[in-house]
Amino acid sequence: MPASRLSGLRSALARFPAQHLLVVGDAIADEFVYGTIARVSREAPVLILRHEYTETLPGGAANAAANAAALGMATTWIGVIGRDRPGRRVLTDLRRRGVQTGAAIVIPGRPTPTKTRVLAGLPNAVRQQVIRLDHDDTTPLSAKTVDALVARVQAVLPQVTGVVLSDYGYGSTPPEVIALFQTWRRETGLPVVADSRRRLADFYGLTAATPNQEEAEQLAGTTFRHLDDAGYHAERLRVRLALEALLLTRGSEGMTLAQHGAAPISIPVHGGRMPVDVTGAGDTVLVVFTAALAAGADLETAMRLANVAAGLVVMKRGTATVSAAEIEAALELDIGC
Fold first, then answer.
1. What is the pLDDT confidence band of residue 336, given thresholds at 50, 70 and 90?
2. Which of 30, 84, 195, 283 is catalytic?
3. Which of 63, 70, 113, 277 could form a disulfide with 283 if both were Cys (CB 3.0 to 4.6 A apart)?
4. Mean pLDDT of 279-283
5. Is 52 within the bounds of a domain?
6. What is the tally of structural domains in the chain?
7. 22 touches 271 (CB < 8 A)
8. pLDDT per residue over 183-227, tens digit each?
9. By three-state DSSP, how is residue 226 classified?
10. CA 41, 42, 47 angle in degrees (round to 5)?
11. d(CA 259, CA 245)
């Protein structure tokens, strides 16, 4: 790696602790149920598992906030969450990690989106996911709740240096909130970066977006069959959404960055090993890319840091985070950047 590039990556990373990231979006409870295969059921052709333990971790926007805190930044999460057991577990976990959650809106009677993954295996074997059960509510938020979201975001904005919008379709990023950030970004020049599972077209006029290839293909209405296709359509989507940049994550094929005034740049995935678990990797990319921009890095440097972080987090099981120290250690090895 050229010394100047390595210096730029390290310089941006060193400025992370001075940033305050605001994460706005849908918190999800990622529940992992681990069991040992005991036998095949007589009632149906299914496995009977002996329960070992259950683990609940912050997912969705809550995972994005957890990633920001793990990178050493002051972090605030704002969104809606249910007054239920999964919601309490997510909030408790975020607070333990140092995330500020006081501005979150807790709604009685609205379930916290929960993704329950059952992982099974023989006693001495690696547990593998066998099924996932989702429990959620996509009912639109009331006007009163939307007004409260806007007010709480406005109260926090003077303190932050960058914003992450993480939309999983559960209502925490309504049009009124997006409009607020469109204005704030124009007035301050600070980065606002979005990722959305199904509403990417609504997140226009911001700094950047970080869709995966499937999300981008759905919006573009076509399949990206080659690297040139990825660059061409990433640029078209960037223009269509009036963004400074669009960072397209392409799984094992790496990343493609479309940016205003320059040709698209594609880089291979960091590391050469088969990923262990890709759960939440998009959240890691979103946060590291935004944090690097908030720290004054250029778009390519931000992409390369996000690529390293993604390569590290997919080697961990479950919904995981990556620290600045881990990224620094990977840079020391001078591989895949």
1. very low
2. 283
3. 63
4. 84
5. no
6. 1
7. no
8. 999 999 999 999 998 999 999 999 999 999 999 999 999 999 888
9. coil
10. 10
11. 4
Q: Give the integer Cα–Cα distance in Å for 248 and 95.
A: 31
Residue 323 burial (C-beta neighbours within 10 Å; 0-12, 13-18, 19+): middle
At position 310, the amino acid (one-letter code) is: A
Q: Under DSSP, is residue 174 helix (H, G, I), strand (E, B) or coil?
A: coil
Specify whether 283 is catalytic: yes
Please name which of 191, 199, 186, 166 lies closest in space to residue 280, comparing C-alpha atoms. 166
Could you say which DSSP state residue 305 is in?
Answer: H
Model confidence, pTM? 0.92
Pairing of strands 20-25, 74-78: parallel
Domain that holds residue 249: 3-28+59-112+137-333
| Residue 208 three-state SS | strand
Give 152's contacts (C-beta < 8 A, 6+ positions apart): 78, 103, 105
| Bridge pairing between strands 114-121 and 128-135 | antiparallel
Answer yes or no: is 104 within a domain.
yes
Q: Which of the four pLDDT bands, split at 50, 70 and 90, describes residue 337? A: very low
Percent helix, strand and coil across the chain, each to the nearest 5: 40, 25, 35
Tokens 């120290």, located at residue: 325
**CB atoms inside a 10 Å sphere around CB 277:** 15
The residues, any chain, with a CB within 8 Å of residue 283's CB and separated by 6 or more, are 60, 61, 63, 64, 67, 166, 195
Are 314 and 326 a contacting pair, CB within 8 Å? Answer: no
Q: What are the φ/ψ torsions at residue 262 (nearest 5 degrees)? A: -150, 160
Report if residue 71 sits inside a domain. yes
How far is it, in rounded angstroms, from Cα 70 to Cα 93?
Answer: 13
Joined tokens for residue 266: 């594609």
> How many angstroms separate the CA atoms of 117 and 123, rounded?
18
Residue 236 phi/psi, 5° resolution? Answer: -60, -40
* CATH code at position 206: 3.40.1190.20
d(CA 193, CA 202): 13
Domain presence at residue 119: no
To which H or E segment does residue 69 belong? helix 61-70
